[in-house]
Write a sequence for this structure.
């Protein structure tokens, strides 16, 4: 019985490691390509390990495209979006879980409904609204909607608030606090782990977003990294070494964030996925 | 309005404003634009069903529907099954769970832009890593993204790399299945497959349903990866990949709206997509009554 269990565990590990390697290999290939010279990349047979390490590729990225500028543009949009969601989403989630009013029941089903709504349906009219406001070509169309609470984060925070004991709020009410005060000094401090998840997911989503900037940003000096990468691909489509170096630089902040916030990630994902 | 109603309204106002301005009004507006000839530079002109009639005779429209349905129908079950099997492997009481979880999850956080670039390079017909490995094994080495027979398969393969969050969701739900159920089933002499069907699937079916619907809806809106691959082969960005095999519905919609400025036609397409998504979701919900059981997990 014991040897069978051991054999089973070894087999499981073997499969997971083999599978894991195929998940890791593309990254290694990105990094290995990013330090190869163009000659080596375009010569056959294909080499795995670089013959010459061309670290200069990374410096060249900054010469070929204004990488630093794209980086700051992306960071600005991402930062404002995180602030937007952190302000709006918990307010709405609180309204539908902890306040007894006529909207408490029917807002949530609509929130779920909008999660299922393809964004293409609203894309064109929303674009035209921002065009009428003369805001296309600026970052505002990407930032303003984040202050209106995304359905996913309302959903996530609702799950969290449902777990907060109502007795806590009643107790604070008896002590004479009103809803605004309770929200600010009792509920929000308790919500920190869930807020961290919202912040991380917003960061991730905005950092990676391609469709939004593609629609609204039209001047190269306002480009985000995703747009920069796409333009770079179109103009320098043979320079794979540089492209891989740029991709690696683009990916690095995400991996760093993940490294420090792994627990929040996993909890946030489990929270949104479990109770459909 | 009593006091609570006012407070609730104030708290919910960010969402209410957003819903009116960015969802409800646009929903009505795009329905209307679908019946107009509208190129942004002039105001919309009502043309009845012309856009819809045009679309029915538009080969690229049908092509993009076929491409998107192909992707959805194959990619959705393949991704869910792969994620479920991997989650089950990770659910055995095993060492190094957090290391595995990290390894499988990290690809999903990589921006799709970078993912697409990376895989275009890995699947490069001439200099790609994948064909080098296939060469070692003595297998054929297709052109992947540049070959219409393989291009959609390439997207599906690339998609498998990003199933990490589905794995984590499945893993979390698998961990809530009571072990005692498996033990008593073993005593009753149930084999591995029967336990899988009658306990595992039964218990986590609500999560499978939720994931199935989200995957179908996401796949119907497949955009970034296809757009990246297409624009690498064509500088003016109005191509659909080799023999239009990568022209996804959302890409064609985008091209109509923002490259040809056919806002009316694009709006009609958006509504057709909406209806398609609605019908598919409805079918999945209807069928789910036969295989989803609630009350297990909660």
């Amino acid at each position: 019985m014991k040897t069978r269990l051991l054999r089973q565990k070894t087999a499981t590990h073997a499969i997971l490691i083999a599978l894991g390697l195929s998940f890791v290999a593309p990254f290694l290939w990105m990094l290995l390509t990013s330090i190869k010279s163009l000659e080596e990349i375009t010569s056959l047979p294909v080499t795995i390990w670089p013959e010459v390490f061309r670290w200069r590729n990374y410096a060249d990225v900054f010469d070929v495209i204004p990488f630093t500028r794209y980086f700051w543009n992306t960071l600005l949009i991402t930062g404002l979006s995180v602030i937007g969601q952190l302000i709006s989403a918990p307010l709405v989630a609180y309204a539908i879980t902890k306040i007894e009013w006529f909207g408490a029941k029917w807002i949530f089903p609509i929130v779920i409904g909008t999660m299922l709504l393809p964004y293409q349906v609203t894309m064109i009219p929303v674009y035209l609204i921002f065009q009428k406001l003369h805001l296309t070509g600026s970052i505002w169309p990407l930032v303003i909607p984040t202050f209106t609470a995304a359905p996913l984060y309302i959903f996530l925070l609702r799950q969290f608030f449902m777990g907060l004991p109502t007795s806590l709020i009643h107790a604070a009410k008896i002590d004479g606090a009103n809803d605004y005060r309770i929200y600010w000094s009792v509920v929000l401090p308790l919500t920190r782990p869930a807020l961290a998840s919202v912040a991380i997911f917003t960061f991730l989503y905005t950092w990676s977003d391609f469709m939004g900037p593609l629609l609204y940003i039209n001047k190269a000096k306002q480009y985000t990294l995703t747009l920069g990468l796409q333009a770079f691909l179109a103009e320098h489509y043979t320079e794979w070494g540089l492209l891989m170096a740029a991709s690696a630089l683009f990916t690095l902040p995400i991996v760093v964030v993940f490294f420090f916030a792994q627990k929040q990630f996993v909890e946030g994902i489990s929270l949104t996925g479990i109770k459909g | 309005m009593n006091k609570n109603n006012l407070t609730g309204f104030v708290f919910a106002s960010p969402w209410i404003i957003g819903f009116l301005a960015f969802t409800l009004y646009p929903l009505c507006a795009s329905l209307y634009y679908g019946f107009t000839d509208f190129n942004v530079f002039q105001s919309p002109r009502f043309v009845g069903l012309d856009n819809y009639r045009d679309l029915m005779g538009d080969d690229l429209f049908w092509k993009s529907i076929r491409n998107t349905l192909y992707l959805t129908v194959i990619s959705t079950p393949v991704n869910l099954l792969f994620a479920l099997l991997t989650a089950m492997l990770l659910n055995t009481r095993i060492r190094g769970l957090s290391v595995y979880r990290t390894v499988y999850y990290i690809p999903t956080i990589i921006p799709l832009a970078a993912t697409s670039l990376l895989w275009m390079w890995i699947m490069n017909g001439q200099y790609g890593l994948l064909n080098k490995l296939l060469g070692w094994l003595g297998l054929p080495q297709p052109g992947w993204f540049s070959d219409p027979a393989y291009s959609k398969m390439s997207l599906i393969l690339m998609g498998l790399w990003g199933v990490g969050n589905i794995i984590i969701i499945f893993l979390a739900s698998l961990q809530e299945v009571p072990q005692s159920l498996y033990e008593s089933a073993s005593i009753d002499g149930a084999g591995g497959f029967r336990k899988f069907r009658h306990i595992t699937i039964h218990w986590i079916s609500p999560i499978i349903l939720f994931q199935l619907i989200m995957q179908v809806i996401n796949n119907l809106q497949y955009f970034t990866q296809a757009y990246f691959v297409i624009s690498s082969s064509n500088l003016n960005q109005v191509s659909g990949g080799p023999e239009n095999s990568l022209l996804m519905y959302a890409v064609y919609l985008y091209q109509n709206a923002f490259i040809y400025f056919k806002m009316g036609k694009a709006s009609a397409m958006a509504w057709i997509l909406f209806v398609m998504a609605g019908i598919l979701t409805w079918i999945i919900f209807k069928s789910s009554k036969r295989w989803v059981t609630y009350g297990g997990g909660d």
